[in-house]
Amino acid sequence: MRIGELAKSVQLGANAIRFYERVGLLPEPERTASNYRTCSQFHVERLAFIRRCRGLDMSLAEIRALLQFCADPQRQCDAVNDMLDDHVAQVESRIVELQRLARELNRMRTLCRVSGKAKNCQVLKTLRVA
Description:
Shape: elongated
Largest sheet: 2 strands, antiparallel
Low-confidence stretches: none
Oligomer: single chain
Radius of gyration: 23 Å
CATH architecture of the largest domain: Orthogonal Bundle
């Protein structure tokens, strides 16, 4: 399977696949005599795993650590659970930050409820001063 077919099958762009190869999350596939990549089912499964992890907003370092566990299935998975606990805490912290951000944006939005000229916009004035 060539990279375009692989990209389509895992719903990622070819550039994303090349990026995952560059950062070491995906081993570079073998190449044909004409230098085309020949991707295997392994690549499909690895990219699906990476895509799912990225969908959960995991960092490349977290994904790399999880892949190390996949490569050594006899290891104890306590560290995986610890990593997930840390990730949940980070997500919850970001939720609090985003809620704070939403409140501030809503507060700014209440400054000006009418249309008018930008020179009279209270939101823009607040952003200049703040």
